[in-house]
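Give me the fold.
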Amino acid sequence: MLEVKNVTKNFNNICVVNNVSFEVKKGKILGLLGKNGAGKSTIFRLILDIIEPEEGSILINGKKYTIKDSNKVGFLPEEGSLGQELTVYEQMCFYGSLKGMSEDEVKIKLKMWLEKFEIVEYMNKRIKELSKGNKQRIQFIASIMHDPELIILDEPFSGLDPLGVEKFKEILIELKNQNKAIIFSSHRMEHVELFCDEIIIIDKGKIILSGNLDEIKSNYNKVKVIVKGKEKFVLKENVDDYVSKLDSKDVKMYNMSLNDIFIDKVGNSDDE
């Protein structure tokens, strides 16, 4: 569905996306991970043809994306773009018109999605009256209301409480089962582990790890060892020799979580 091939982008002679390649197939969810400034949002802007790469190509269904293809793509930006004085209904009518939807279509789809999020009573509320979490829900609805084939979500869990995250998870899995191609970025590894099929870890514009999430976790050649009374640390080689010298009651070994792998590859973790 989405193919990113050897894409490079520079700003002021600084390479911010460096020879990046990946694909997202229909019915799959890809997590794009990295610290602030790693190049995630720039990749999204390249996919959406907001900016042009110096090298490489980006194809959607085998063709270069243009504004004429905007109905095929839904985008949730990290920074919201809602009009604070508009009501939810007015805002959605505006977004729907940009995607070629009639007002009747908007009304039907908006009511359906508000019901899914259990916030039907917000239909005629002004955006400025909503909480941060509910603004995020409305922005998300705006990105999927026109039934796109490809869904791009930049930090979709921002401002959501645990119940909100759980509802997003439920809806993303529903969209995946509808054969949508989904790519999203997040700082929160625990959210990525909930439902991603594939992941990419990017650092300083370059992909440093990619592949099937379960395979990466099961094949990662390090384990985390916790010794009672001591700090956590990671061992790569001769784990059995080390552990055999200690009292087994004082030692616990764990497979690396995605968060552990991210920290190991990137160097440190960024919390929101």
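The radius of gyration is 21 Å.
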